[in-house]
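Mods, move this if it's the wrong board.
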Amino acid sequence: MSERKGFTLVELLVVIAIIGVLIALLLPAVQQAREAARRTSCFNNLKQLGLAMHNYHDTFLTFPSGYIATDSDHKTPLAEGQPGWGWASLILPQMEQGNIADSLINYNLNITDPSNQAARETIIMAYACPSDRSPEVFELHDESESHLTDLASANYIGCFGTTELDACEGLASGQRCDGNGMLGHNAKRRMADITDGTSHTMMVGERATSISGGSEPLFSTWVGSVSGGEEAMARILGIADHAPNSQYEEEHDDHDHGEEHHHLDDFGSRHPAGTNFVFADGSAHLITETIDLNVYQALATRSGGEVVPGDAY
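Not the wrong board. Structure tokens:
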């Protein structure tokens, strides 16, 4: 009778351990390859956005307003007025999403009007970064935290500049909420208005879904600024007072002390390498978190007169 040969228990455990080590070595490389593909897809989204903005300019001889809002007479500017449609909704035809603009949106009516429900809850993949969370519709609350409406989320926001969006709250009728960047309230920029140079002026950048103090996620949207909504203007516009992906530690709330917070009006991304932006010349660039803050803020203005070195970003 011949002796049957096979693995001993020790040999089997050694083989399993070797396989586990190989998988552990391989997994980070696979994850890096996947993230590189997602980052490239996001980069291409922004290049498409830049092209759409230029096509809009070719058609209307201006870039789109950051958002459009007026008083009840529909003529006088009002920062917290209606209808509120944002820059990303205005360029839908140039983004090959003309069917949404033509069949789902009534631009003359408020975003929250029942006839615009289908539009405001439509996810547009070209406005979503694949490195962020799965696209979804989020609840927008008013300042008293009551449910106001539902909006489709997005990851790309217009550059308002370096001036605070909070300064627009409570502006009287007839006053525009405008910054020193490319996109503002009822603001129609022309190429001639970009005296800093189109290659040195950011137009649109990324914003990841952020977490504030471990509470509910803070979403942005492509739809627009909803009158009465919490952080309404910051849902579609961003400012460059902090570097991308900046975080701060809450020091005044004992319950949140030590937790990482994100400013909703900042730019940022889930990419480990940096945050993607499209500039006024249509070119896309990755900006790292370590960029000099003065350079970053200079890139956020359209006519600040700052000198930006060619290799600064």
